[in-house]
Design brief:
Tetracycline Repressor, domain 2; Homeodomain-like_sf; about 200 residues; HTH_TetR; about 0% strand; Arc Repressor Mutant, subunit A; 9 helices; DNA binding; mainly alpha; 2 domains
């Protein structure tokens, strides 16, 4: 089969998308570099021209998955809503992205994707933490929030919410009660008194 010559950026994107697809199908641990290059009919030399290792392309896959989520969070932060509403929208945006049929939560908790789980969490926190910090800082200035460790508190809140949302296996009533508890915890963590959070889990 004749190999098609592509421009560098297009080829790099193709490698990342192929790796992502295989990580979904087989898991990161069970995907070899040879699987990636065979899928798009290029040599391993082409792979190593763009990536130093399989872990290197893993980081690129994590950044690709997180990029649209971070962009959505950025757009919410730029809106005209009050700070509490922005935080509510940001949490729901992340939960929605993670819990879709092909969402990152499914990929994170898939067998063979333990390292990808860590990379996705790192990328997500790195990309959205500065945005969240700005929203919360403004909210504290406006009197919406009252907390001593805003950045750290939100990271813990986000991690807990993502974990619990993925492990909801209760019936409808129990699920609603857990969701209500998470909303209450969110308000307490942020020190909000006059706002009711609505998490879509």
């Amino acid at each position: 089969m004749v190999r098609i010559v592509k421009n560098p950026e297009e080829r790099r994107t193709e490698l990342i998308e192929t790796a992502e697809s295989l990580f979904f199908q087989k898991g990161y641990e069970y995907t070899a570099v040879s699987d990636i290059v065979k899928k798009i009919n290029v040599g391993q030399g082409t792979f190593y021209h763009y990536f130093k290792s399989k872990e290197d392309i893993l980081e690129a896959v994590a950044e690709k998955i997180v990029a649209p989520i971070a962009e959505d969070v950025r757009n919410i932060a730029k809106g005209n809503e009050d700070s509490a509403t922005k935080v509510n929208s940001i949490l729901n945006s992340i939960l929605k992205a993670g819990n879709s049929e092909t969402g990152f939560m499914k990929l994170m908790h898939q067998k063979g994707n333990y390292l990808l789980h860590d990379k996705l969490e790192e990328a997500l926190k790195a990309k959205i933490s500065p945005i969240i910090a700005e929203v919360i800082s403004k909210g504290m200035d406006e009197g919406f929030f009252n907390m001593s460790y805003p950045k750290e508190s939100f990271i813990l809140l986000l991690s807990s919410t993502l974990y619990l949302s993925h492990h909801f296996t209760w019936d409808h009533e129990a699920r609603e009660r857990m969701c209500a508890a998470l909303e209450e915890i969110t308000a307490r963590v942020l020190g909000v008194k006059d706002y009711r959070f609505h998490l879509e889990i």
